[in-house]
Specification:
3-stranded mixed β-sheet
Length: 84
């Protein structure tokens, strides 16, 4: 399951250069091969919330900073095959 971590040490679990689009791309790739995938967004601090979604995300983060998952995206793919 792809997990996007924001705050403390940068934007991603292994690199400050990681971005949301890269994690979504990976999750979609997983969903296409397995039929479904889950993308969890973890935010550790207000700076991470600001990076992720601006002032609105900071406000939502402040409401419950101890939440284990800030947002979860469930991606389901149905391959309809070739369309003539």
């Amino acid at each position: 399951m792809p997990t996007l971590v924001l705050g403390r040490d940068g934007m991603g679990p292994n690199s400050e250069e990681a971005d949301f689009k890269a994690f979504v791309s990976y999750a979609l790739d997983q969903a296409m091969s397995r039929g479904e995938a889950t993308l969890d967004v973890l935010i550790w601090d207000e700076a991470g919330a600001l990076t992720y979604g601006g002032d609105d995300a900071v406000e939502r983060y402040s409401e419950d900073p101890e939440a284990s998952v800030f947002e979860r995206f469930e991606i389901k793919v149905n391959c309809a095959g070739r369309v003539p």
